[in-house]
Specification:
Helix content: 40-55%
Order of helices and strands: HHHEEHHHHEEEEEEE
Shape: rod-shaped
Number of strands: 9
Largest sheet: 7 strands, antiparallel
Number of helices: 7
Strand content: 25-35%
Strand order of the largest sheet: 5-4-8-7-6-3-9
Distance between the termini: 94 Å
C-alpha cells in the first residue's frame, strides 16, 4: 500500500500549529523577536560609535597637521609612516576586520636617514599616533629585523657629533662618519713631508658611512687656540685615481661602525 510521502506526519504538523497558536508559543516567538531587536540595536550602536570615533580621529589628525605644519617631529612621523609598504585595509576602516593591514616591505634607507634628524622620540611617537592612529614602536619593530633595529635606535640615541675628543685612533683603523648632519671631506696631499688639506673634493658622507682607513694623524690647532686630532684617511673609489687621501677632524668621525 502506497503512502502520501509529500504530506508528512499530520499529527506532527497539527501539534506544531497548536504550539505556534498557543499563548506560550506566541510568547516564545515574541521573546525571540525582542532578543533579535536588542542584538541589532546593540550592533547598530556599536557601529555608530565606531564611525563617530573614526571621524573624530580623522578630524583630530587634520587639525594637528594644520596646526603643526613644518614641525620636524610631524615631518619625521610622516616619513617613517611612508617608509612602510602595506597591503590590506587600515585599522580606521570597517573592512580592517576582514583584511587587516600587513607590512610587506620597508625602506630601511629612509628610516636610517630620518633617524639622524630625530631629537625627540616621544614627540615623534605622539605625532605618529595622532596622524595615523598607529604605534610607532610597534610598526618599527615589525618592519625591521634585529640588526636593523639596533642600527635605527642606535642612530637616534647617538650624539650629533663625536664627543670623544681625547682618544687618538691608531693608524690602520677604519673611520666612519659620526656627524648626524653628514660631512664633506676635502682631499689631502703630502708636501715636503707635511700633510695639508686641499680644496679638492674627497667625498660627501652620511652618518655611519665609511670615511676611510687612517694612514697618518696629527694635531690641528683651531684659530681660537683649541687643539683637536686630525686624521689622514685613504679609501678606494670607482674613479681615476682609484685611491684618494682626505683629511677629517676628531669630532667628525669615530672608529665604531654604526
Amino acid at each position: 500500500m502506497k503512502t502520501n510521502q509529500g504530506m508528512g506526519n499530520p499529527l506532527v504538523i497539527a501539534g506544531a500549529t497548536n504550539i505556534v497558536n498557543s499563548k506560550e508559543g506566541q510568547k516564545a516567538i515574541g521573546q525571540g523577536a525582542n532578543a533579535l531587536k536588542v542584538i541589532f540595536l546593540v550592533l547598530g550602536v556599536a557601529a555608530g560609535l565606531r564611525y563617530v570615533n573614526i571621524q573624530y580621529k580623522k578630524l583630530r589628525a587634520k587639525n594637528f597637521a594644520r596646526e603643526n605644519a613644518g614641525n620636524p617631529n610631524l615631518t619625521a612621523a610622516a616619513i617613517i609612516y611612508e617608509s612602510f609598504t602595506r597591503v590590506g585595509f587600515p585599522e580606521s576602516s570597517f573592512l580592517s576586520m576582514l583584511i587587516p593591514s600587513i607590512n610587506i616591505s620597508t625602506n630601511e634607507g629612509a628610516l636610517y636617514d630620518i633617524a639622524t634628524k630625530v631629537s625627540n622620540v616621544k614627540a615623534v611617537s605622539h605625532a605618529y599616533y595622532i596622524l595615523f592612529d598607529r604605534s610607532l614602536f610597534t610598526d618599527i619593530h615589525k618592519g625591521l629585523d634585529t640588526e636593523e633595529l639596533k642600527k635605527f635606535w642606535g642612530t637616534i640615541s647617538s650624539t650629533s657629533q663625536n664627543q670623544n675628543s681625547t682618544t687618538l685612533y691608531p693608524i690602520g683603523s677604519t673611520l666612519y662618519c659620526a656627524d648626524k648632519n653628514g660631512i664633506t671631506v676635502n682631499q689631502a696631499e703630502k708636501e715636503n713631508g707635511v700633510w695639508k688639506g686641499t680644496g679638492h673634493f674627497y667625498d660627501k658622507l652620511k652618518f655611519g658611512e665609511k670615511v676611510g682607513d687612517i694612514i697618518a694623524h696629527g694635531v690641528f690647532k683651531h684659530p681660537d687656540g683649541r687643539e683637536e686630532n686630525y686624521y689622514i684617511v685613504e679609501s678606494y673609489f670607482f674613479a681615476i685615481p682609484f685611491t684618494k687621501t682626505g683629511v677629517v677632524l676628531q669630532h667628525q668621525v669615530t672608529n665604531e661602525k654604526k
